[in-house]
Amino acid sequence: MFRSVKWVIVGLAVGMLTALDAGAAIGFQPVSPEELKMTREPQAPGAAAIILYRQVDRDDNGHTSHEDNYRRIKILTEEGRKYANVEIAFVKKSQDVVSIRARTIRPDGSIADYGGQVFEKELVKARGVKILAKTFTLPDVQVGSILEYSYTMDLGEHLLFESHWILSDELFTKKAQFSLKPYRGSSAVPLSLHWSWQDLPPGPEPKEGPDHIIRMEANDIPAFQIEDYMPPPNELKSRVDFIYDAISGKDENAYWKQVGLQWNGYLENFVGKKKEMEQAVAQIVAPNDSPEVKLRKIYDRVQQIRNTTYEVHKTEQEEKRDKEKPAENVEEVWKRGYGDRTQLNWLFLGLVRAAGFEAYGCWVSDRKDYFFKPVTMQRSKLDVNVVLVKADGKDLYLAPGVAFTPFGLLTWSETAVTGLRLDKDGGTWIRTTLPHASESRIERVAKMRLSETGDLEGKLTITYVGLQAMYHRMEERHADDLARKKSLEKRATDQIAVAAEAELTNRPDWTSSETPLVAEFSLKIPNWSSNAGKHVVIPAAIFTAGEKELFEHANRVHPVYFDYPYEKADDVTVELPTGWQVSSMPKALDQNGKVITYDLSFEQGPGMVRQMRKLTYDVLLVDQKYYGALRDFFQAVRTGDGQQIVLQPGTDHAGN
Amino acid sequence: MGNKLCCSQGPTMRATNRRAQLGWFWTAVWVLTVVRGAAAGDAPQWMHALTGVTLPSYSEKTEAVLLYSETNVTVLSADKIKIQSREAYKILRPEGRGRGTVKLYFNQTRKIKDLHGWCIPAQGKDYEVKDKDAMDVTAPIQGGYLVLDAKYRVLNIPAPDVGNIVGYEYEIEEQPFWLQDDWRFQETDPVRESHFTLQLPQGWVYKASWLAHDEIKPEQAGGNVLRWTVTDVKGISHEPDMPPVSGLAGQMIVSFFPAGGTSSKNEFVDWKGLGDWYGDLIRGQMDASEAIKQEVNGLTAGKAGQLQKIQAIAGFVQHDIRYVAIELGIGGWQPHAAPEVLAHKYGDCKDKATLLRTMLREIGVDSYQVLINTQRGAIARDTPAHNAFNHAILAIKLPDEVKDKSLIAVMKDPKLGRILFFDPTNDVTPFGQIGGYLQANYGLLVAPDGGDLVELPQQPSAMNSIQRTGKLTLDASGKLTGDVEEFRVGDRARSERSRLRATTASVDRIKPIENLLAGSLSNFQIVKASVVNFDLTDQPFGFQYSFQSENYARPAGNLLLVRPRVLGTKALAILETKDPRKYPFEFEGPYRDTDSFYITLPVGYEVDELPPPTDVEYSFGTYHSRTEASGQVLHYTRSMEIKELSVPVSQMDDLKKFYRIIASDERNTAILKSVGTGK
């Protein structure tokens, strides 16, 4: 509803092009003897292939818009031969791929021109939509060959597509050249082009020439790698983004002021139902309620309203039958008793304002896919709404429209992000809060008994708090009890490094946002103890699998990214078989990595041992230069976890 | 009708089978199609008749039940078949919502003429969706699959919610490549009632064969119409490492043809007939061109013996012909002509096999295509003859003088003599051997006088092995340092070579070693590492590395606890489930691994106690370990051998016990005591 309005203001069909390779009027380039002889690229050791040269030339004239693409690839290993298979996807009617030319240059310099068939595949065909692909493969490709191909992507008349020069490729690029001849606009459809870039390799930045063509040349662009715990790839790739916008000018502040004013107008139009909201608030709060109680009551009430965002996707036919139309304002949302997440957040804004709070609507940027920077002047990246409430001298960021979000928290991807707080002056930049690790916890309390044969059995209680509880509730919201049970049991045993059986014994509360999610299990770990001659040993900790192989590789390219701060706290009591004694307890450990900490301690009592383990992740991003320290930290964690408690069995113990 | 020979799984599956591979792709398709709209209409009477049926009691895990299935196959002529089908599911759990997505396979010769879907909600009016609401999709390039004409029509039926009934009807017209069909009446969901009707032209005959189900006689429904019915068929639940469902599920294979046979000879009732058909299909594709002759001459020049010549040609096809699958129409079965494959230097499995056969013939060596399913168990000795193959390899008739010991995958055929199986698509398995996926598997040997189902040889377990040796030193602080070398042969070498080949940077080549160490050591630093024989696929693949691990041995008073099994994990936890196992456990291939770790003990310590030896022997496998002390050296050895590729359910407790004993041995600890304080 409200969001769609923001897109329409562009006023011209602007689409997102997601072709596998984005446009050939570019002729084959001469190949040097050095390129023919090349067997390796020192800057990309071990690479299967590299891009020797890439060129992208785009002409957005609005009538015969097109993009010419050219690639020259050197094959360095057998694995690299796969780059001879080329597929170029396009959307029929608005795009076409023409003038495909290709050839293989053999290691001896002889040329095998492509004489094969270009296949046109129908990737997707549905009513009104056809996504096709031109596919071909080059002949006689051997290690040492150079592949060349070029093509032109024709773009539909009167259509304007955003441009993205994604420099980072899965292959190392020796040299690349890009150009864009932008749409010059017309008096009827005035459009302005904004462009921004990130992580470009050393060299000149994109620059507009006297001919108004923007050009850039880049050299030695590293291959893009995928790693565990990395920030969103969009954020790490070297790229230049070009956005057409109806708001003209290149001044960042002026741009956002105009955006803010527009959005605030839409917002106030949607929320501005003061009288109706006051009537609604009167049904929710009591006059004598404290401000905090009022706020919580309103929050809870909004969360009880049917939230269509988190329902099972419906077909158009089902939606039609339900006769559910987009609400025009908060009054409609309130009266109908349902809304999507955006509408419910705005309803909350209307209600808290009616209850006398100073509150603002904010558009913020979800950090699942990218980290927003205002300088890019891309308003579409402010894509989710939250409400800022001033209460008791504090700024509270709240979004009851996101299901299962506890009061005071935001879903993880909306924490610690930049956003625009809307007001009549155009808005102010804000940053949402990042909850402390202690607000999102996994607590495991186990009362276990070790048998003489080495099996460990007992009761385990896992309590998921804050964002940890929210995550589980969100994930399992469409599942039935059996699936939820299976999921919880699996999550419990997945944290144990050996085979274990868990049986859920309670009925966790899956509907609440505020209460922790508590799961109780009967747990059995066969063969938990192991033999050490006349002694028996048991591990110092049970729930260690999560860290067992974490950051095992010494080499790291990207920063390490955690979704949100959280804690794991374990308290395990093991009752020993009658007559057994503790011979040796492990050392307590207190590993303080500043932003990540690890505490392991033990207690010993008559016939029992107690193991306490706490791991706190109070960090989002760890720069690559600190990766070594991070890896060392987790090696120390594993060393602590790998300690053993030595037991002396009773005299009649036969071992397992 | 029909898988394809492109090393991929075939499209013959129930229309609502859940999205298999390409999870993201099908998800995207689903998202696109759920917004399609349609006019509402009432579900047909046959579906409404199902609303009141009484169902037996199913397991609480049952997601949906196939209430009714009916497939009518009308044979109009030898080159035209009409298939009409209707099916209806009742959704029992939210996880059963996927049954509301109909996915129908079609291609150039298999056209969907009509597709309708309905939902009868527990409350409210029926929903109806039609052809125009569906979406046609093709998978993008995957691996070497460049162009396949296989498409899917996807139709999302509204409201596939718990308690609702979803159903659909479709009609397909097919130009069959061969005159046979299969009725797969068993699937993951239980089936309440399923019918299969075959309508033949006058004078046609049929032969029905049954797989994993007792034979059922058909009803004669007038004219040349036959109708089979099954009721209350159990669902097949998934278990890890189970045999392929296609080999477990109840199904009927029905062949049909005019009484006198067809002129195109595309009917078959036995393996010989299928072999004849395939033999005819490939015959014209194996004419050697001048370029092939020149290539053969170049490859064999200077090679003295036939074996060396065969190896040179096989190596060329194995390595220099890039795997690319372009399969349109009959191209799913018929290879491209050998000269074409050579000219492009690419092709799929059957292209490679065909080119190799053509080239071998130029040096006077006969060979024969072998069709096989890469999932052992999909075809077994007693499987009725039908085309369920997805891969092509070659059987090379060994000249009498070739008696090299490196040729392992050899069998003696009563008619053809000694033949060597070779998979030219697998470019990291040495000539003379075959991968585990082919061993003890059944393939159709396409010989000159027809086909014959043969069992491929099972290689000795020692041909698939990891031999790891570590020479290590422990200091008094518990730090372990030393050198390890491990050599791998067979599939164990293949997997590492494939893994390393996929790395795109030199620094990533160490990752397999890091993974191995991380699985066994809480901390480690690799001091140096190297790979041995990476490209020499006829030699054992090796890793050599040196590492150090702090606190490997743990102090306990004046004792030091040491785990003699330093590296490698053989224990398997997947059998530790609450539910009893229903299906056999399948190993990919036989293997025999050994570990040997010498740990020099720190000065001032001596062995106090050692773990007991472990000796386990079952018919399917053995495990032996020993920890011994000799002077200041602790020596741990172990061997594990898997001899049988399938462990039946009756032995599942033994298998579970086998792995528990291994897990226990892997965690056993030796105790060192400080000399002087401990005495």
Please, could you describe this protein's structure?
The complex is a heterodimer of chains A (656) and B (679). By secondary structure, chain A is an alpha+beta fold. Chain A has 3 domains: 2-245, Immunoglobulin-like, CATH 2.60.40.3140; 253-434, C8orf32 fold (Roll); 440-648, Jelly Rolls, CATH 2.60.120.1130. In chain A, 20% of the residues lie in helices and 35% in strands. Chain A has an 8-stranded mixed sheet with strand order 6-5-9-3-2-12-15-14, with no helix packed on it. Chain A has an 8-stranded mixed sheet with strand order 26-27-25-24-31-35-34-33. Chain B has 679 residues and is an alpha+beta fold. Chain B has 3 domains: 23-50 and 63-267, Immunoglobulin-like (Sandwich); 273-457, Roll (C8orf32 fold); 462-674, Sandwich (Jelly Rolls). Chain B has an 8-stranded mixed sheet, with no helix packed on it. In chain B, strand 29 (554-556) and strand 30 form a beta hairpin. In chain B, helix 7 crosses helix 8. The radius of gyration of chain B is 29 Å and the shape is globular. At the A-B interface, strand 4, strand 7, strand 8, helix 7 and strand 28 of A face helix 1, strand 6, helix 10 and helix 11 of B.
Summarize the structure.
By secondary structure, chain A is α+β, with helices and mostly antiparallel strands.
The largest interface is: A-B, 86 and 95 residues
Q: Which range does the strand content of chain B fall in?
A: 35-45%
The share of residues in extended strands of chain A comes to 35-45%
Distance N to C terminus of chain B = 78 Å
CATH class of the largest domain in chain B: Mainly Beta
The second-level CATH architecture of the largest domain in chain B is Sandwich
Which features characterize this protein?
heterodimer; A: 656 residues; alpha+beta; Immunoglobulin-like; C8orf32 fold; Jelly Rolls; eight-stranded mixed β-sheet; 37 strands; 20% helix; disordered N terminus; B: 679 residues; 3 domains; 11 helices; 17% helix
